[in-house]
What does this fold into?
Amino acid sequence: MGYIELDVLDGAPRRIVIGIDLGTTNSLAALWEDDRPVILRQEGSSGIIPSVINFPAEGAPLVGKQARAQAVVDPQHTLFSVKRLLGRGLADLRGELKDLPYAISENANGVLEIEVRGQTYTPPELSALILRATCDEACAAFENAEIASAVITVPAYFDDAQRQATRDAARLAGIEVLRIVNEPTAASLAYGLDQKGEGTVAIYDLGGGTFDVSILSIEGGVFRVLATNGDTQLGGDDFDRVIVELIREDLAGELSAEDLADPAFLQAARLAAEKCKIALSSDPRHEVHLSLPDIGLNWRHRVTREEFEKRISPLVDRTMDCCRRALADAGIEPSELDEVVLVGGSTRVPLVRARTEEFFGRPPHTELNPDEVVALGAAAQAQVLMGGTRDILLMDVTPLSLGLETVGGAVSKLIERNSTVPCSVTEGFTTYVDGQSGIDFNIVQGEREMAADCRSLGRFKLTGLPPMPAGMARVAVCFHIDANGLLTVTAKEETSGVRTEIEVSPSHGLSEGDMEAMLQAGFDNASEDFDRRRVADLKAEIGTMLLAVKKNQTAADEKLDPESHKELADAAARASKACDGDDLDEIRSARDEFEQASLPLAAVLMDHVVKGAIQGKSLDEV
Ligand code: AMP
It folds into this structure.
Protein backbone atom coordinates (compact mmCIF):
# COMPACT_ATOMS: atom_id res chain seq x y z
CA MET A 1 0.00 0.00 0.00
CA GLY A 2 1.12 3.50 -0.69
CA TYR A 3 -0.44 5.10 2.40
CA ILE A 4 1.88 7.07 4.58
CA GLU A 5 1.13 5.43 7.87
CA LEU A 6 2.74 5.79 11.24
CA ASP A 7 2.49 3.40 14.15
CA VAL A 8 -0.58 1.56 12.95
CA LEU A 9 -1.69 -0.68 15.80
CA ASP A 10 -4.77 -2.86 15.94
CA GLY A 11 -7.76 -0.66 16.68
CA ALA A 12 -5.62 2.46 16.99
CA PRO A 13 -6.36 5.28 14.59
CA ARG A 14 -4.44 5.34 11.32
CA ARG A 15 -2.00 8.23 11.63
CA ILE A 16 -1.76 9.94 8.27
CA VAL A 17 0.53 12.64 6.92
CA ILE A 18 -1.39 14.94 4.64
CA GLY A 19 -0.96 17.97 2.41
CA ILE A 20 -3.23 20.95 3.09
CA ASP A 21 -4.01 23.79 0.71
CA LEU A 22 -5.10 26.52 3.13
CA GLY A 23 -6.70 28.81 0.58
CA THR A 24 -8.17 32.29 0.72
CA THR A 25 -11.46 31.04 -0.72
CA ASN A 26 -11.32 27.29 -0.24
CA SER A 27 -9.20 24.77 1.61
CA LEU A 28 -8.70 21.08 1.05
CA ALA A 29 -6.46 18.17 1.97
CA ALA A 30 -4.82 15.36 0.03
CA LEU A 31 -2.95 12.17 0.84
CA TRP A 32 -0.40 10.09 -1.05
CA GLU A 33 -2.05 6.78 -1.81
CA ASP A 34 -1.06 4.00 -4.21
CA ASP A 35 1.71 6.02 -5.79
CA ARG A 36 -0.27 9.17 -6.43
CA PRO A 37 -1.83 12.00 -4.48
CA VAL A 38 -5.59 11.90 -3.94
CA ILE A 39 -7.99 14.47 -2.51
CA LEU A 40 -9.47 13.38 0.84
CA ARG A 41 -13.23 13.66 0.82
CA GLN A 42 -16.25 11.97 2.28
CA GLU A 43 -18.41 10.10 -0.16
CA GLY A 44 -20.50 12.47 -2.23
CA SER A 45 -18.46 15.52 -1.19
CA SER A 46 -15.90 17.51 -3.18
CA GLY A 47 -13.68 17.66 -0.09
CA ILE A 48 -13.51 21.43 -0.55
CA ILE A 49 -14.04 23.41 2.65
CA PRO A 50 -15.00 27.01 1.89
CA SER A 51 -12.64 29.14 4.00
CA VAL A 52 -15.60 30.82 5.66
CA ILE A 53 -16.55 31.02 9.36
CA ASN A 54 -19.91 31.96 10.86
CA PHE A 55 -20.46 32.68 14.53
CA PRO A 56 -24.04 31.77 15.45
CA ALA A 57 -25.76 33.39 18.44
CA GLU A 58 -25.25 30.18 20.38
CA GLY A 59 -22.98 27.19 20.03
CA ALA A 60 -19.74 26.49 18.25
CA PRO A 61 -18.63 28.45 15.17
CA LEU A 62 -19.69 27.02 11.81
CA VAL A 63 -16.97 26.48 9.22
CA GLY A 64 -17.18 25.69 5.50
CA LYS A 65 -20.36 25.23 3.49
CA GLN A 66 -22.63 25.70 6.51
CA ALA A 67 -20.89 28.98 7.29
CA ARG A 68 -21.08 30.16 3.70
CA ALA A 69 -24.79 29.41 3.67
CA GLN A 70 -25.16 31.95 6.50
CA ALA A 71 -23.47 34.71 4.50
CA VAL A 72 -26.69 36.26 3.23
CA VAL A 73 -28.81 35.90 6.36
CA ASP A 74 -26.08 36.70 8.88
CA PRO A 75 -23.40 38.79 7.11
CA GLN A 76 -22.11 40.58 10.22
CA HIS A 77 -21.08 37.32 11.81
CA THR A 78 -19.71 35.59 8.71
CA LEU A 79 -16.00 35.94 7.98
CA PHE A 80 -14.46 35.49 4.51
CA SER A 81 -10.88 35.70 3.21
CA VAL A 82 -9.27 35.46 6.65
CA LYS A 83 -6.02 34.42 4.97
CA ARG A 84 -5.58 37.98 3.74
CA LEU A 85 -5.24 39.04 7.39
CA LEU A 86 -2.67 36.44 8.49
CA GLY A 87 0.52 38.00 9.82
CA ARG A 88 -0.51 41.47 8.80
CA GLY A 89 -1.11 44.80 10.55
CA LEU A 90 -3.67 47.55 10.05
CA ALA A 91 -1.19 49.57 8.00
CA ASP A 92 -0.89 46.67 5.52
CA LEU A 93 -4.64 46.64 5.01
CA ARG A 94 -5.20 50.21 3.96
CA GLY A 95 -7.66 50.28 1.09
CA GLU A 96 -8.97 46.80 1.87
CA LEU A 97 -10.74 47.59 5.12
CA LYS A 98 -13.72 49.16 3.42
CA ASP A 99 -14.54 45.84 1.76
CA LEU A 100 -14.53 43.89 5.00
CA PRO A 101 -17.90 43.81 6.72
CA TYR A 102 -16.45 43.23 10.21
CA ALA A 103 -14.67 45.36 12.81
CA ILE A 104 -10.89 45.01 12.92
CA SER A 105 -8.43 46.52 15.37
CA GLU A 106 -4.81 45.92 16.31
CA ASN A 107 -3.53 44.82 19.71
CA ALA A 108 -0.33 45.92 21.44
CA ASN A 109 1.78 43.39 19.48
CA GLY A 110 0.42 44.68 16.20
CA VAL A 111 -1.68 41.51 15.84
CA LEU A 112 -5.07 42.10 14.22
CA GLU A 113 -8.19 41.33 16.20
CA ILE A 114 -11.55 40.77 14.60
CA GLU A 115 -14.57 41.41 16.74
CA VAL A 116 -17.56 39.15 16.35
CA ARG A 117 -20.46 39.01 18.82
CA GLY A 118 -18.45 40.86 21.46
CA GLN A 119 -15.50 38.43 21.30
CA THR A 120 -12.19 39.10 19.57
CA TYR A 121 -10.33 36.60 17.43
CA THR A 122 -6.87 36.81 15.87
CA PRO A 123 -6.35 35.68 12.24
CA PRO A 124 -4.35 32.58 13.34
CA GLU A 125 -7.24 31.56 15.63
CA LEU A 126 -9.68 31.91 12.75
CA SER A 127 -7.41 30.08 10.31
CA ALA A 128 -7.04 27.35 12.94
CA LEU A 129 -10.80 26.77 12.74
CA ILE A 130 -10.52 26.34 8.96
CA LEU A 131 -7.52 24.03 9.28
CA ARG A 132 -9.34 21.95 11.86
CA ALA A 133 -12.41 21.63 9.64
CA THR A 134 -10.19 20.63 6.71
CA CYS A 135 -8.50 17.96 8.82
CA ASP A 136 -11.86 16.70 10.08
CA GLU A 137 -13.07 16.35 6.47
CA ALA A 138 -9.82 14.53 5.65
CA CYS A 139 -10.19 12.14 8.60
CA ALA A 140 -13.84 11.51 7.72
CA ALA A 141 -12.62 9.90 4.51
CA PHE A 142 -11.44 7.02 6.71
CA GLU A 143 -13.12 4.97 9.37
CA ASN A 144 -10.52 5.66 11.99
CA ALA A 145 -7.75 8.12 11.22
CA GLU A 146 -5.96 11.03 12.76
CA ILE A 147 -3.50 13.54 11.37
CA ALA A 148 0.10 12.87 12.38
CA SER A 149 1.44 15.97 10.64
CA ALA A 150 0.88 18.07 7.56
CA VAL A 151 2.53 20.01 4.78
CA ILE A 152 0.73 23.35 4.51
CA THR A 153 0.98 25.60 1.49
CA VAL A 154 1.21 29.41 1.42
CA PRO A 155 1.44 31.92 -1.44
CA ALA A 156 4.98 32.48 -2.64
CA TYR A 157 4.65 36.12 -1.61
CA PHE A 158 4.02 35.37 2.05
CA ASP A 159 6.66 37.09 4.15
CA ASP A 160 8.11 35.82 7.39
CA ALA A 161 5.28 37.14 9.57
CA GLN A 162 2.64 35.58 7.32
CA ARG A 163 4.41 32.20 7.29
CA GLN A 164 4.82 32.35 11.04
CA ALA A 165 1.12 33.20 11.45
CA THR A 166 0.28 30.13 9.34
CA ARG A 167 2.40 28.00 11.67
CA ASP A 168 0.66 29.58 14.66
CA ALA A 169 -2.70 28.67 13.12
CA ALA A 170 -1.59 25.06 12.70
CA ARG A 171 -0.38 24.90 16.28
CA LEU A 172 -3.67 26.28 17.56
CA ALA A 173 -5.46 23.65 15.48
CA GLY A 174 -3.29 20.95 17.06
CA ILE A 175 -1.53 20.11 13.79
CA GLU A 176 2.17 19.46 13.58
CA VAL A 177 3.64 21.23 10.57
CA LEU A 178 6.01 19.09 8.56
CA ARG A 179 6.82 21.89 6.13
CA ILE A 180 5.45 25.18 4.88
CA VAL A 181 5.62 25.07 1.08
CA ASN A 182 4.96 27.68 -1.58
CA GLU A 183 1.77 27.00 -3.49
CA PRO A 184 3.35 27.19 -6.98
CA THR A 185 6.06 24.80 -5.91
CA ALA A 186 3.46 22.31 -4.69
CA ALA A 187 1.51 22.71 -7.92
CA SER A 188 4.53 21.87 -10.01
CA LEU A 189 4.95 18.65 -8.04
CA ALA A 190 1.32 17.70 -8.61
CA TYR A 191 1.95 17.90 -12.33
CA GLY A 192 4.87 15.53 -11.88
CA LEU A 193 7.20 18.01 -13.51
CA ASP A 194 10.02 16.49 -11.48
CA GLN A 195 9.79 13.50 -13.74
CA LYS A 196 10.73 15.63 -16.75
CA GLY A 197 14.34 15.52 -17.76
CA GLU A 198 15.09 19.18 -18.34
CA GLY A 199 13.10 22.29 -18.95
CA THR A 200 11.79 25.62 -17.79
CA VAL A 201 8.22 25.98 -16.58
CA ALA A 202 5.89 28.84 -15.64
CA ILE A 203 3.21 28.23 -13.01
CA TYR A 204 0.36 30.74 -13.29
CA ASP A 205 -1.83 30.51 -10.18
CA LEU A 206 -4.92 32.67 -10.01
CA GLY A 207 -7.07 31.72 -7.02
CA GLY A 208 -9.80 33.50 -5.13
CA GLY A 209 -7.66 36.11 -3.44
CA THR A 210 -4.08 35.88 -4.64
CA PHE A 211 -2.11 35.66 -7.84
CA ASP A 212 1.31 34.02 -8.07
CA VAL A 213 3.54 33.24 -10.97
CA SER A 214 6.68 31.14 -10.62
CA ILE A 215 9.39 30.31 -13.07
CA LEU A 216 10.94 26.92 -12.37
CA SER A 217 13.81 25.09 -13.96
CA ILE A 218 14.23 21.33 -13.97
CA GLU A 219 17.67 19.92 -14.56
CA GLY A 220 18.50 16.26 -14.17
CA GLY A 221 15.57 15.72 -11.83
CA VAL A 222 16.55 18.73 -9.72
CA PHE A 223 13.89 21.36 -9.30
CA ARG A 224 14.81 25.00 -8.88
CA VAL A 225 12.56 28.00 -8.48
CA LEU A 226 14.19 30.71 -10.60
CA ALA A 227 11.83 33.54 -9.75
CA THR A 228 8.48 34.30 -8.29
CA ASN A 229 6.22 37.29 -8.66
CA GLY A 230 2.60 38.01 -7.95
CA ASP A 231 -0.01 40.15 -6.32
CA THR A 232 -1.46 39.28 -2.93
CA GLN A 233 -4.48 41.45 -3.68
CA LEU A 234 -5.65 39.99 -6.97
CA GLY A 235 -7.91 37.03 -7.66
CA GLY A 236 -11.35 35.72 -8.50
CA ASP A 237 -12.84 37.82 -5.66
CA ASP A 238 -11.92 40.85 -7.75
CA PHE A 239 -13.76 39.38 -10.74
CA ASP A 240 -16.77 39.00 -8.44
CA ARG A 241 -16.39 42.62 -7.34
CA VAL A 242 -16.49 43.71 -10.98
CA ILE A 243 -19.90 42.08 -11.33
CA VAL A 244 -21.05 43.47 -7.96
CA GLU A 245 -20.19 46.93 -9.28
CA LEU A 246 -22.18 46.21 -12.43
CA ILE A 247 -25.16 45.18 -10.27
CA ARG A 248 -24.83 48.29 -8.09
CA GLU A 249 -24.59 50.55 -11.13
CA ASP A 250 -27.72 49.02 -12.60
CA LEU A 251 -29.61 49.27 -9.32
CA ALA A 252 -28.46 52.81 -8.49
CA GLY A 253 -31.73 54.30 -9.74
CA GLU A 254 -33.87 51.71 -7.99
CA LEU A 255 -32.32 51.37 -4.51
CA SER A 256 -31.29 53.98 -1.95
CA ALA A 257 -27.59 54.52 -1.23
CA GLU A 258 -28.28 52.95 2.18
CA ASP A 259 -29.70 49.76 0.67
CA LEU A 260 -26.82 49.57 -1.81
CA ALA A 261 -24.36 49.62 1.10
CA ASP A 262 -26.37 47.23 3.26
CA PRO A 263 -24.24 44.20 4.30
CA ALA A 264 -27.05 41.74 3.49
CA PHE A 265 -27.46 43.26 0.03
CA LEU A 266 -23.69 43.22 -0.56
CA GLN A 267 -23.34 39.58 0.48
CA ALA A 268 -26.27 38.54 -1.72
CA ALA A 269 -24.84 40.54 -4.62
CA ARG A 270 -21.45 38.95 -4.05
CA LEU A 271 -22.81 35.40 -4.14
CA ALA A 272 -24.91 36.17 -7.23
CA ALA A 273 -21.83 37.72 -8.85
CA GLU A 274 -19.70 34.63 -8.25
CA LYS A 275 -22.45 32.41 -9.64
CA CYS A 276 -22.64 34.61 -12.73
CA LYS A 277 -18.86 34.56 -13.20
CA ILE A 278 -18.73 30.76 -12.96
CA ALA A 279 -21.63 30.41 -15.41
CA LEU A 280 -19.87 32.70 -17.88
CA SER A 281 -16.89 30.32 -17.94
CA SER A 282 -19.07 27.88 -19.88
CA ASP A 283 -21.99 29.99 -21.22
CA PRO A 284 -21.88 33.10 -23.41
CA ARG A 285 -24.44 34.89 -21.21
CA HIS A 286 -26.05 34.56 -17.77
CA GLU A 287 -29.06 36.08 -16.07
CA VAL A 288 -28.30 37.40 -12.60
CA HIS A 289 -31.26 37.12 -10.26
CA LEU A 290 -31.37 38.97 -6.94
CA SER A 291 -34.33 38.46 -4.67
CA LEU A 292 -34.29 40.32 -1.34
CA PRO A 293 -37.87 40.57 -0.06
CA ASP A 294 -36.73 42.62 2.97
CA ILE A 295 -35.94 45.57 0.74
CA GLY A 296 -38.59 44.69 -1.86
CA LEU A 297 -36.03 43.68 -4.47
CA ASN A 298 -36.65 41.15 -7.23
CA TRP A 299 -34.21 41.99 -9.97
CA ARG A 300 -33.00 40.20 -13.08
CA HIS A 301 -30.24 41.29 -15.39
CA ARG A 302 -28.46 39.59 -18.26
CA VAL A 303 -24.65 39.73 -18.34
CA THR A 304 -22.74 38.61 -21.45
CA ARG A 305 -19.30 37.04 -21.42
CA GLU A 306 -18.13 39.81 -23.71
CA GLU A 307 -19.23 42.50 -21.22
CA PHE A 308 -17.62 40.59 -18.33
CA GLU A 309 -14.36 40.10 -20.23
CA LYS A 310 -14.18 43.78 -21.09
CA ARG A 311 -14.49 44.69 -17.42
CA ILE A 312 -11.97 42.15 -16.08
CA SER A 313 -9.47 42.77 -18.85
CA PRO A 314 -7.40 45.30 -16.81
CA LEU A 315 -7.20 42.77 -13.95
CA VAL A 316 -5.96 40.03 -16.28
CA ASP A 317 -3.45 42.55 -17.71
CA ARG A 318 -2.10 43.03 -14.19
CA THR A 319 -1.36 39.30 -13.94
CA MET A 320 0.50 39.52 -17.24
CA ASP A 321 2.64 42.38 -15.87
CA CYS A 322 3.64 40.09 -12.99
CA CYS A 323 4.51 37.34 -15.50
CA ARG A 324 6.68 39.79 -17.41
CA ARG A 325 8.53 40.77 -14.22
CA ALA A 326 9.04 37.14 -13.14
CA LEU A 327 10.49 36.26 -16.54
CA ALA A 328 12.78 39.30 -16.36
CA ASP A 329 13.98 38.27 -12.88
CA ALA A 330 14.67 34.76 -14.17
CA GLY A 331 16.39 36.19 -17.27
CA ILE A 332 14.13 34.19 -19.57
CA GLU A 333 12.13 35.02 -22.70
CA PRO A 334 8.60 33.59 -23.00
CA SER A 335 9.77 31.57 -26.02
CA GLU A 336 12.37 29.80 -23.84
CA LEU A 337 9.69 28.27 -21.61
CA ASP A 338 8.93 24.62 -22.19
CA GLU A 339 5.66 24.41 -20.31
CA VAL A 340 3.00 26.55 -18.72
CA VAL A 341 0.74 25.29 -15.94
CA LEU A 342 -2.51 26.88 -14.82
CA VAL A 343 -3.52 26.58 -11.18
CA GLY A 344 -6.40 28.04 -9.14
CA GLY A 345 -10.15 28.13 -9.73
CA SER A 346 -10.02 31.45 -11.58
CA THR A 347 -7.95 29.97 -14.40
CA ARG A 348 -11.22 28.44 -15.62
CA VAL A 349 -12.15 31.89 -16.93
CA PRO A 350 -11.80 31.60 -20.73
CA LEU A 351 -10.17 35.04 -21.03
CA VAL A 352 -7.45 33.98 -18.57
CA ARG A 353 -6.74 30.85 -20.58
CA ALA A 354 -6.65 32.78 -23.85
CA ARG A 355 -4.36 35.51 -22.49
CA THR A 356 -1.89 33.10 -20.91
CA GLU A 357 -1.71 31.08 -24.12
CA GLU A 358 -1.14 34.27 -26.11
CA PHE A 359 1.46 35.63 -23.67
CA PHE A 360 3.51 32.46 -23.24
CA GLY A 361 3.02 31.37 -26.85
CA ARG A 362 1.85 27.83 -26.07
CA PRO A 363 -1.28 26.10 -24.75
CA PRO A 364 -1.10 25.82 -20.95
CA HIS A 365 -1.55 22.60 -18.97
CA THR A 366 -5.08 22.36 -17.63
CA GLU A 367 -5.46 18.59 -17.26
CA LEU A 368 -5.72 18.53 -13.47
CA ASN A 369 -8.55 20.17 -11.59
CA PRO A 370 -7.13 23.66 -10.93
CA ASP A 371 -8.78 23.75 -7.48
CA GLU A 372 -7.03 20.56 -6.40
CA VAL A 373 -3.55 20.96 -7.83
CA VAL A 374 -1.99 22.67 -4.82
CA ALA A 375 -3.33 20.19 -2.26
CA LEU A 376 -2.26 17.27 -4.46
CA GLY A 377 1.23 18.75 -4.69
CA ALA A 378 1.35 19.29 -0.93
CA ALA A 379 0.58 15.58 -0.47
CA ALA A 380 3.35 14.74 -2.94
CA GLN A 381 5.71 16.92 -0.91
CA ALA A 382 4.61 15.17 2.29
CA GLN A 383 5.40 11.85 0.65
CA VAL A 384 8.88 13.07 -0.29
CA LEU A 385 9.53 14.36 3.24
CA MET A 386 8.37 11.10 4.76
CA GLY A 387 11.04 9.31 2.76
CA GLY A 388 8.88 8.34 -0.17
CA THR A 389 10.28 7.00 -3.36
CA ARG A 390 10.08 10.04 -5.61
CA ASP A 391 13.64 11.02 -6.08
CA ILE A 392 13.56 14.78 -6.25
CA LEU A 393 15.29 17.69 -4.71
CA LEU A 394 13.13 20.72 -4.13
CA MET A 395 14.53 24.15 -3.76
CA ASP A 396 12.47 27.20 -2.98
CA VAL A 397 13.38 30.83 -3.10
CA THR A 398 12.91 33.60 -0.61
CA PRO A 399 10.44 36.08 -2.09
CA LEU A 400 11.84 39.26 -0.50
CA SER A 401 15.32 40.45 0.40
CA LEU A 402 16.41 40.34 4.04
CA GLY A 403 18.89 42.65 5.66
CA LEU A 404 19.89 44.86 8.57
CA GLU A 405 19.40 48.57 9.10
CA THR A 406 22.76 50.32 9.10
CA VAL A 407 23.77 53.56 10.78
CA GLY A 408 21.95 56.33 8.93
CA GLY A 409 18.87 54.20 8.21
CA ALA A 410 19.96 52.47 5.00
CA VAL A 411 19.57 48.72 4.45
CA SER A 412 22.45 46.31 4.17
CA LYS A 413 20.99 43.31 2.33
CA LEU A 414 22.31 39.96 3.53
CA ILE A 415 20.01 37.68 1.57
CA GLU A 416 18.85 38.82 -1.83
CA ARG A 417 15.33 38.19 -3.07
CA ASN A 418 14.95 34.98 -5.09
CA SER A 419 17.85 33.29 -3.27
CA THR A 420 17.29 29.56 -3.00
CA VAL A 421 16.56 28.29 0.50
CA PRO A 422 17.70 26.85 2.83
CA CYS A 423 20.60 29.29 2.92
CA SER A 424 22.94 31.08 5.31
CA VAL A 425 24.78 34.36 4.81
CA THR A 426 27.23 35.94 7.25
CA GLU A 427 28.34 39.55 7.15
CA GLY A 428 30.75 41.54 9.30
CA PHE A 429 29.74 44.62 11.31
CA THR A 430 31.67 46.80 13.73
CA THR A 431 31.27 49.53 16.35
CA TYR A 432 31.42 53.19 15.46
CA VAL A 433 32.01 54.77 18.88
CA ASP A 434 35.00 54.18 21.18
CA GLY A 435 34.12 51.88 24.09
CA GLN A 436 30.72 51.00 22.62
CA SER A 437 29.38 48.09 24.70
CA GLY A 438 26.44 47.06 22.54
CA ILE A 439 25.02 47.17 19.02
CA ASP A 440 21.34 47.50 18.10
CA PHE A 441 20.16 45.61 15.05
CA ASN A 442 16.92 46.03 13.14
CA ILE A 443 16.10 43.12 10.82
CA VAL A 444 14.22 44.28 7.76
CA GLN A 445 12.52 42.64 4.80
CA GLY A 446 11.82 44.28 1.47
CA GLU A 447 13.34 45.71 -1.67
CA ARG A 448 13.58 49.38 -0.72
CA GLU A 449 16.89 51.04 0.10
CA MET A 450 15.85 52.74 3.33
CA ALA A 451 14.89 50.68 6.37
CA ALA A 452 11.90 52.91 7.06
CA ASP A 453 10.39 51.81 3.72
CA CYS A 454 10.87 48.10 4.45
CA ARG A 455 9.08 45.93 6.93
CA SER A 456 10.82 45.48 10.28
CA LEU A 457 10.79 41.82 11.29
CA GLY A 458 12.27 42.44 14.70
CA ARG A 459 15.01 44.17 16.66
CA PHE A 460 17.74 42.76 18.84
CA LYS A 461 20.76 43.95 20.80
CA LEU A 462 24.21 42.42 21.08
CA THR A 463 25.39 43.48 24.54
CA GLY A 464 28.43 42.88 26.75
CA LEU A 465 31.09 43.92 24.23
CA PRO A 466 34.45 44.60 25.94
CA PRO A 467 35.63 48.22 25.66
CA MET A 468 37.39 48.66 22.32
CA PRO A 469 38.26 51.57 20.06
CA ALA A 470 35.68 52.30 17.35
CA GLY A 471 35.97 49.98 14.38
CA MET A 472 37.90 47.27 16.26
CA ALA A 473 34.98 44.98 17.17
CA ARG A 474 34.40 42.22 14.63
CA VAL A 475 30.75 41.24 14.77
CA ALA A 476 29.64 38.43 12.47
CA VAL A 477 25.90 38.44 11.88
CA CYS A 478 24.50 35.29 10.32
CA PHE A 479 21.10 35.06 8.65
CA HIS A 480 19.85 31.52 8.22
CA ILE A 481 16.65 30.70 6.34
CA ASP A 482 15.46 27.16 6.86
CA ALA A 483 13.60 25.02 4.35
CA ASN A 484 10.29 26.54 5.51
CA GLY A 485 11.50 30.02 4.68
CA LEU A 486 11.76 30.98 8.35
CA LEU A 487 14.59 33.19 9.48
CA THR A 488 16.92 32.87 12.47
CA VAL A 489 19.67 35.37 13.15
CA THR A 490 22.82 34.97 15.24
CA ALA A 491 25.42 37.63 16.07
CA LYS A 492 28.90 37.01 17.48
CA GLU A 493 31.74 39.31 18.35
CA GLU A 494 34.77 37.35 17.13
CA THR A 495 37.54 38.70 19.39
CA SER A 496 35.67 38.38 22.70
CA GLY A 497 33.36 35.53 21.72
CA VAL A 498 30.28 37.45 22.97
CA ARG A 499 27.32 35.92 21.24
CA THR A 500 23.57 36.45 20.94
CA GLU A 501 20.98 34.11 19.55
CA ILE A 502 18.11 36.11 18.24
CA GLU A 503 14.64 34.88 18.07
CA VAL A 504 13.11 36.76 15.22
CA SER A 505 9.64 37.39 16.50
CA PRO A 506 7.95 38.82 13.45
CA SER A 507 5.88 41.96 13.60
CA HIS A 508 2.21 41.08 13.59
CA GLY A 509 3.02 37.73 15.20
CA LEU A 510 1.46 36.13 18.22
CA SER A 511 3.63 36.26 21.31
CA GLU A 512 4.34 33.03 23.13
CA GLY A 513 2.03 34.33 25.90
CA ASP A 514 -0.84 34.95 23.45
CA MET A 515 -0.34 31.51 22.02
CA GLU A 516 -0.41 29.81 25.40
CA ALA A 517 -3.55 31.72 26.36
CA MET A 518 -5.28 30.65 23.15
CA LEU A 519 -4.27 27.04 23.58
CA GLN A 520 -5.49 27.18 27.16
CA ALA A 521 -8.82 28.60 26.00
CA GLY A 522 -9.07 25.59 23.69
CA PHE A 523 -8.55 23.25 26.64
CA ASP A 524 -10.97 25.24 28.81
CA ASN A 525 -13.64 24.84 26.17
CA ALA A 526 -12.83 21.19 25.68
CA SER A 527 -15.43 19.99 28.17
CA GLU A 528 -18.07 22.20 26.58
CA ASP A 529 -17.09 20.86 23.17
CA PHE A 530 -17.27 17.35 24.54
CA ASP A 531 -20.77 17.98 25.90
CA ARG A 532 -21.90 19.26 22.52
CA ARG A 533 -20.60 16.12 20.87
CA ARG A 534 -22.37 13.95 23.49
CA VAL A 535 -25.67 15.78 22.89
CA ALA A 536 -25.35 15.18 19.14
CA ASP A 537 -24.59 11.47 19.66
CA LEU A 538 -27.54 10.99 22.04
CA LYS A 539 -29.91 12.73 19.64
CA ALA A 540 -28.76 10.45 16.86
CA GLU A 541 -29.32 7.43 19.11
CA ILE A 542 -32.84 8.56 20.04
CA GLY A 543 -33.55 9.14 16.33
CA THR A 544 -32.61 5.53 15.57
CA MET A 545 -34.76 4.25 18.46
CA LEU A 546 -37.77 6.28 17.30
CA LEU A 547 -37.42 4.83 13.82
CA ALA A 548 -37.23 1.31 15.22
CA VAL A 549 -40.40 1.82 17.26
CA LYS A 550 -42.20 3.27 14.25
CA LYS A 551 -41.14 0.34 12.11
CA ASN A 552 -42.57 -2.11 14.64
CA GLN A 553 -45.70 -0.12 15.45
CA THR A 554 -48.04 -2.93 14.40
CA ALA A 555 -46.34 -5.44 16.67
CA ALA A 556 -46.49 -2.92 19.53
CA ASP A 557 -50.20 -2.21 18.95
CA GLU A 558 -51.10 -5.89 18.73
CA LYS A 559 -48.84 -7.57 21.27
CA LEU A 560 -48.07 -5.11 24.08
CA ASP A 561 -50.21 -4.88 27.20
CA PRO A 562 -51.98 -1.49 27.47
CA GLU A 563 -49.71 -0.26 30.27
CA SER A 564 -46.46 -1.02 28.44
CA HIS A 565 -47.94 0.39 25.25
CA LYS A 566 -48.73 3.69 26.94
CA GLU A 567 -45.36 3.85 28.71
CA LEU A 568 -43.57 3.32 25.42
CA ALA A 569 -45.62 5.99 23.64
CA ASP A 570 -45.05 8.48 26.48
CA ALA A 571 -41.30 7.77 26.68
CA ALA A 572 -40.96 8.12 22.90
CA ALA A 573 -42.78 11.46 22.99
CA ARG A 574 -40.59 12.70 25.88
CA ALA A 575 -37.39 11.62 24.13
CA SER A 576 -38.50 13.28 20.93
CA LYS A 577 -39.31 16.49 22.80
CA ALA A 578 -35.98 16.46 24.67
CA CYS A 579 -34.24 16.43 21.29
CA ASP A 580 -35.71 19.85 20.53
CA GLY A 581 -33.41 21.29 23.20
CA ASP A 582 -29.70 20.91 23.97
CA ASP A 583 -29.78 19.96 27.63
CA LEU A 584 -27.41 17.03 27.99
CA ASP A 585 -28.86 15.72 31.28
CA GLU A 586 -32.43 15.96 30.08
CA ILE A 587 -31.64 14.20 26.80
CA ARG A 588 -29.64 11.52 28.58
CA SER A 589 -32.39 10.69 31.08
CA ALA A 590 -35.04 10.77 28.31
CA ARG A 591 -32.92 8.33 26.34
CA ASP A 592 -32.55 6.06 29.40
CA GLU A 593 -36.30 6.07 30.07
CA PHE A 594 -37.05 5.43 26.42
CA GLU A 595 -34.65 2.50 26.42
CA GLN A 596 -36.31 1.10 29.54
CA ALA A 597 -39.81 1.55 28.13
CA SER A 598 -38.91 -0.17 24.88
CA LEU A 599 -37.79 -3.39 26.63
CA PRO A 600 -41.27 -5.04 26.52
CA LEU A 601 -41.45 -4.36 22.78
CA ALA A 602 -37.98 -5.82 22.35
CA ALA A 603 -39.12 -8.91 24.24
CA VAL A 604 -42.19 -9.26 22.02
CA LEU A 605 -40.09 -8.95 18.89
CA MET A 606 -37.53 -11.39 20.19
CA ASP A 607 -40.27 -13.85 21.01
CA HIS A 608 -41.51 -13.49 17.48
CA VAL A 609 -38.04 -14.12 16.12
CA VAL A 610 -37.53 -17.17 18.30
CA LYS A 611 -40.88 -18.62 17.29
CA GLY A 612 -40.04 -17.94 13.69
CA ALA A 613 -36.72 -19.69 14.10
CA ILE A 614 -38.43 -22.68 15.70
CA GLN A 615 -40.76 -22.82 12.72
CA GLY A 616 -37.69 -23.03 10.50
CA LYS A 617 -37.73 -19.49 9.15
CA SER A 618 -34.62 -17.46 8.76
CA LEU A 619 -34.18 -14.21 10.65
CA ASP A 620 -34.72 -12.21 7.49
CA GLU A 621 -38.10 -13.75 6.98
CA VAL A 622 -39.59 -12.94 10.38
P1 AMP B 1 -9.09 28.77 -5.46
O1 AMP B 1 -8.61 29.84 -4.51
O2 AMP B 1 -8.07 28.20 -6.32
O3 AMP B 1 -9.97 27.75 -4.79
O4 AMP B 1 -10.05 29.54 -6.48
C1 AMP B 1 -11.27 30.01 -6.10
C2 AMP B 1 -11.72 31.01 -7.11
O5 AMP B 1 -12.00 30.37 -8.34
C3 AMP B 1 -13.00 31.70 -6.66
O6 AMP B 1 -12.92 33.08 -6.93
C4 AMP B 1 -14.02 31.03 -7.54
O7 AMP B 1 -15.13 31.88 -7.76
C5 AMP B 1 -13.23 30.81 -8.82
N1 AMP B 1 -13.82 29.81 -9.69
C6 AMP B 1 -14.15 28.53 -9.40
N2 AMP B 1 -14.70 27.92 -10.47
C7 AMP B 1 -14.73 28.84 -11.46
C8 AMP B 1 -15.20 28.83 -12.81
N3 AMP B 1 -15.77 27.72 -13.36
N4 AMP B 1 -15.06 29.97 -13.54
C9 AMP B 1 -14.51 31.07 -12.99
N5 AMP B 1 -14.05 31.13 -11.74
C10 AMP B 1 -14.16 30.04 -10.97
